[in-house]
Specification:
- By secondary structure, the chain is an alpha+beta fold.
- It folds into 2 domains: 2-82 and 250-280, Immunoglobulin-like (Sandwich), CATH 2.60.40.2250; 96-235, C8orf32 fold (Roll), CATH 3.10.620.
- The protein has helices at residues 119-127, 134-147, 161-167, 172-185, 273-280, and strands spanning 2-13, 17-21, 40-42, 47-51, 57-63, 69-79, 149-150, 169-170, 190-196, 212-219, 222-226, 238-243, 253-254, 258-269.
Length: 281
């Protein structure tokens, strides 16, 4: 399966600033790109890229004085197996002494995932009797999916996992933050993931396409995908970045006043793959 991905994002600014963004496909999926990503900045400002501590590709753009807006565009075609997220029911939960050192950071509290809060006691009361491993993570997914009501109009950039739990409403990032936090409370390493997820293999949703957020857990010596927002094994995820929470994976971090003027995301299966691939080149 081939998937066309891309975006058109424009922001107004009123002073010299710097923009950082996780705007590229994650290196773990780079081998699936059918050609290099066609990333561009308007006006044609110079930019640099670097790998952060999570191996995400981060773009840096220094916006000079006199530039009233900056626009980021990108398009690419990604090869995908076209199968749902794998299910590994026998993936076991590791005791703490078995965890690799670089995994422990995904057990700690972070900006939006308050492990050191009342969620700790709630998690053990709610999930302590469930079997460890895959079944426990699925129970956390089930709970989060049912507890939070999805509502774009209730989106808030600074809502934490605790607040999402208390308010019972949010968007995909809120589902991911709560599930990540509950997993960490149960000593299951969990990380936040952002990327492309189109309506592939499911009925199309009658709302504008957006980036999506889900999470991964470390079980059985590997990272596995879970999605508390949809609570289903989906087809066609394309990872852009992962980290402790949304703080680590900004689509665009602007150091100063800014206003979003345009935000269009494309994630579509190419039905007529060879011809469509040529047309997108």
């Amino acid at each position: 399966m081939l998937i066309k991905i891309g975006y058109d994002i424009e922001m107004a600014v009123n002073a010299p600033t710097t923009v950082l963004g996780a705007l590229h496909v994650h290196p773990s999926r780079a081998h699936d790109l059918q050609a290099p990503e066609q990333f561009a900045v308007e006006p044609a400002l110079p930019f640099t890229t670097y790998q952060d501590v999570f191996d995400n590709t981060i773009v840096r753009v220094d916006v000079p004085a006199g530039v009233g807006s900056v626009r980021f565009t990108n398009h690419a075609v990604v090869a995908d197996p076209g199968v749902p997220d794998p299910v590994v029911p026998d993936a076991r939960q590791h005791p703490l002494h078995e965890l690799p050192l670089d995994v422990f950071r995904f057990l700690l509290p972070s900006r939006y995932c308050e492990v050191d809060s009342e969620l700790m006691g709630f998690a053990w009361n709610q999930f302590g009797a469930t079997p460890e491993g895959w079944a426990r993570v699925q129970a956390i997914c089930d709970y989060t999916h049912q507890h939070i009501r999805f509502d774009y109009l209730q989106a808030r950039a600074n809502r934490t996992a605790l607040q999402g739990w208390q308010e019972g409403v949010g968007v995909c990032r809120d589902y991911a933050h709560l599930a990540v936090t509950l997993c960490r409370c149960m000593n299951i390493p969990a990380r936040y993931v952002t990327g492309y997820l189109g309506d592939i293999g499911v009925p199309p949703v009658p709302c504008p396409m957006d980036f999506s957020a889900w999470f991964e857990v470390y079980l059985g010596g590997a990272w596995h995908t879970f999605d508390a927002r949809h609570n289903a094994r989906r087809i066609g995820r394309v990872v852009m970045a992962h980290g402790r929470d949304a703080t680590d994976v900004p689509i665009a971090m602007v150091f100063g006043w800014h206003q979003l003027n345009r935000f269009d995301v494309v994630t579509d299966e190419l039905q007529d793959a060879p011809e469509a691939l040529l047309a997108s080149a």
